[in-house]
Design goal:
CATH topology of the largest domain: Rossmann fold
CATH class of the largest domain: Alpha Beta
Number of domains: 2
Helix content: 25-40%
CATH architecture of the largest domain: 3-Layer(aba) Sandwich
Number of helices: 11
Number of strands: 12
Strand content: 5-15%
Strand order of the largest sheet: 8-7-6-9-10-11-12
Order of helices and strands: EEHEHEHEHHHEHEEHEHEHEEH
Largest sheet: 7 strands, parallel
Amino acid sequence: MTPSAPLRIVMLDRGTFPPATDLAGPRLGHVLHTHDRTSPEEAAAHIGDADVVISNKVRITRELLEQAPNLKLVAVAATGYDVIDVKACADHGVAVCNVRDYARHTVPEHTFALILALRRSLIPYHRSVAEGRWQQSGQFCYFDYPISDLAGSTLGIFGAGAIGQAVAKIADAFGMKVLFAARKNAEAEGRYTPFDTVVEQSDILTFHLPLRPETRNMIGKEELARMKRRPLIINTGRGGLVDEAALADSLEAGQIAGAAFDVVTAEPMPNDHPFHRLMGRSNFILTPHVAWASQQATQIVADQVFNNIDNFFSGRPSNIVSL
C-alpha cells in the first residue's frame, strides 16, 4: 500500500500543539500542510484532495467526507475520537487511528498538582500574600485557609486504565487509600468498589474516563448530595463526566470542599457557563485543558501520529479505531 506519489497530509488544528512541538512528519514521502485552526466552514477547503487528515478537535463529519474523495486516513491527534464520525468514515472506506498511552505522566502529575493546590490552599495563600495579608498579620504565619495532608485520606478513582493506575501509584506514595469505582449501576468485582460506596466514602474523587452515553453526567445533583465526606472533585478526564451546573450549585452550597477541572463540556468555556460564578472562589481551580500538554507528552503525540501514518501506508496499521 506504499504510495507512489508523496502523501498529501493536512493538519487542521496545528494551534492545539505548542509551537515548540517538532512536526517531523512521517518517514514516507509527503507534503504536509498545516492550518493553525479550522472552522466548520473552512474544513472542506482545507482538506481538499488530501490523502491524510490530522485532527485534534476539528469535527470530521459525513458531509465533509463526501467532499474528500482522496481521503484514506483520519489520524486523530488525541486518544478521544468523539469528534470523528467513525461510522461515516467506515462507510467511505476511510480508516481512523488515534494516539494512546502518551499521557501516563503528564495527566496524573497535573491531577496531583490540582489536588495539592486545593488541599493546601496554595492559590488563596499566594493571592493573600500578594495583597499584603502577611504584613497585616504581624506574625510569621497566618491561618486564613484550610490545610490538610493527603496521607490517610481516601481517593476515589473513576477509570482504571493507564492514567487511573498512574494516579493510584502516586496516591500510594502519599499514603492514601485508593478505591477504584465500579461502573454505575453495576456489580463490583475484583479490585473495584461499588460506585455508591466510592461516592460516599472518598475524600477526593478524580475522573479518568472517556465521555460516552453511559458516563455523561455520571456525577449529578443526586450523587453530589450523597457525598458524606465533602470531597474535592477533580476532573482531568473529559468535560461532561460531571454535571457542571450541579457541581457549581453544590460547591456554592458547601456540599463539597472544593473542585478543580481541566476540562469542560464546551471548550473554550462559553460566557454563560456556570463555572464563571466560581472563578473568584478560593476552593475552585480551572485550567484550560492543558493536563495533557507537557512538552514531553505533546512531542510523543506528534511522533505517534506520524508513526501511525507510516504504519498504515506500509501495510502495518496501528491504533486503528473500530466501531
